[in-house]
Structures
1.
Amino acid sequence: MNIGDFRQNPPADRPKRTSKKYNLPDKPGIYQFKKGRQILYIGKATSLRDRVRSYFAGDLVESRGPRLIKMLAEANDLSWQETDSVLEALILESTLIKKHQPKYNAREKDDKSFNYIIITKEKWPRVLIVRGRDLNVRHRVAHISYGPFTSGKDLKIALNLIRKIFPFRDKCLPDSNKGCFNYQLGLCPGVCTGEISAKDYQKIISRLKMFFSGQSKKLRAKLKQEMMALAKKQEFEKADVLKRQLFALDHIRDVALIGARGEVIDSFQNPSSRVQVRIEAYDIAHLSGTNTVGGMVVWQDGELTPTEYRRFKIIGAKDKKVAIDDLANLAEILTRRLIHKEWPLPDVIVVDGDERQRQVAEKIFQSAGLEIKIIAVTKDRHHQMAKILGDSATIGDYHSAIVLINAEAHRYTLSFHRKLRRQMLK
């Protein structure tokens, strides 16, 4: 799809047609409108495909304003970069705006109105959000800054999410022997109570710096290395903390978890909130009926148990009509699951879809004489959780686990589908 083809008949003030074709993915990332090599505008997206299409909607003037109409009239090229999550798209957008300073980003608002994250240069560094106008205030303590970030709302959500993984100090007084409010929520590591050493706190700050610098892959590798070193020393409690941080970082890569604004991370952060229950989640993946597969993931006694995950190649997918029938595919994998008497029965089943998927699953388990709670998770067009359907008491008891396991089933099943596609191309 070329720039001009986002609408059938773009007006004269829209970008001219080019010979280049673009097939934007339905994934998070950043996009750049260009005039030749000059970058005119950089933006972030939950779905690159949907976001870029929105620039060519009929109500563009009302929703975006004449400034972006002018930018689109200048643009003759488009580039993009996928990221693993919306959160990483937010960080990358900030990094690229700072590097390239596109003229239409700069005109969007006064540079001094942009938001920045700063990490102060103190014995016990604070992590704060400040406006551009406050960055160089004389009385402000020395700091390292990250930004600019164009959306203050998105930045606050992102920082709250990261804080659940890497708790930090913002306002509390060190060694005051009185736990601050954020300490009680698990968002401060105990700087105020003296529970953490300056050395260990600096490790947290170092990890935050890596993340805010866009080095998330390097951060994951470093955490894994440190975790294994601690395990060799039999410092299992410290190793478990890093294991949870790694797990959380890996799972915020799913867009659905960003949509949940971090609520799933609570279940990693607060081990006491774990629930003794077995939950199984199922998902289907295919590309226009090819390489149709199903996946089953398991949440057992408060945590995901990858050793019990199972993959299914859809047998009925040999028939093209069946291959694209998600209800038939779901029925097949649930029926095959029940054949395995050696697998423990779940207390709750989570399926991806709406009331139709929920009823298919319910019918199969009832036919087998099993009374199991069936929950369905619906998604919006951005693949964010829209609604959870099923027994309200079950949803209330296991809400965080349901959101997490649904996202994990999607990730696991999609990875299997992509693996089969790569094998076909070899």
2.
Amino acid sequence: DPDVHFVKERAQRRPAKPEELALIPLFKEVV
């Protein structure tokens, strides 16, 4: 899923925001 990849790429460049971390489980459930 491009969205999951995008979030992971963002996390590698800088600390992920709490909102982004909260979205990751949602993306995994969708995939």
3.
Amino acid sequence: VENIKLDNAGLTEDKLLGGRVKFRQPVSGYRVASDSVLLASAVSAV
């Protein structure tokens, strides 16, 4: 996970899978786990 701290609103912009998935989340408090995204990328679509 690559993250960039955004000075406005206490958010970070995070990237997964080489930047193909981008999302913003709070610096503190609940943060998204990458497990489900990595698991989904490891299996083929039905």
4.
Amino acid sequence: MEVQIISRKLIKPSVQTPPHLQSLKISFLDQLAPSLYIPSIFFYPNHHHESIKNIDKLEKSLSEILTLFYPLAGRYIEDDLSVNCNDEGVEFLEAKVDGVDLTQVVQQDPNSNLDLLDHLVPCATESETSRLLSIQINKFRCGGLAIGLLYSHKIADMPTISTFINAWAVTFREGGMSDRVPRPRFDCPFLFPQRDLRLNLPPAAPKIQPKIVTKVFVLDKEAIDKLKSKISGGTDSGVKYHPSRLEVVTALVWKALIGSAKTQHGHLRASSLRQIMTLRGKVGMPLPENACGNIYMPFISRFNPNDKSNRLEFSDIASLLRDSKRRAISDCANAVDSDDVLSMVTSSHKELLEELNKGEVDTYKFSSWCSSLQGGVVFTMMFYCREELSSP
């Protein structure tokens, strides 16, 4: 597959950002976010609605929606821990894909095409004042289309970007701004002002360049329903438990990883699994529904082979995940102000760093876009996302 960039431009907000909004300090939650870019791709076959191929309309709707999501068109200033909302623009690339049809990418064995997907998203850069969002429109010879996005995690989490994508999709579909477009809120720097976090967190372990193997596993609805049936039912408290698809798939993968480590080392090893929980709608303090930024905390589930109650059974692994999630939700509900949130989140990050520094504990990190993209999104054919370990 050959991907040729045929145009490159910067899309600016259609209305200039007012002077009083042109400097946005990041919050202490943003300070804790990793310095990396996140790529994602949306695929559209040739039989998809014809309007999606209207590049001019994509550009126009993007420019309009950036008036609401103006920080994404700015540049991050590392030394000042702020975003310069200077309307410099979002990078917008058009590319032509030769040598392969879109169906070959999305319908054949996905594991054989993962390296090809990297060419469908813009490249990350190393500058500390680099762009915060880049978009690449890929046109296939069959008429299909792939839209690749690359965004900086330093100022946005998955719910923030999904709010942006939903808003762009509605604006595109309706031909302009409307009351149905989600309105973002950038209040977090005021709700969670910057702190000197060096006093709160231990130093991270030295980074080791990992050997990465990427695989795709597809579970259909029938398979997921069978997994759910294995752990659905009553709990110790007598409350009926209905696991989500995310919970059962996470339990399945974690169980397999623990079993794989046992095969490799000859014995069961301690294992921890990190997941992410949004603070939206969970903390005890008021928080706007469409609050944007990094508004999450990690929480950890642990498998201890020395604990006789920790068995390597699917239902037991699922219970570990369920219990840790419930504890995290309870902690969030008790956080009623900024200081409570700071204490809770930094404690969670400390716990994560301590786990990563333990040599005899296998640590895994899971993330999910489940429920992030709403039904109104035009971009719905196929979705691909992975973490890109590059500094913004």
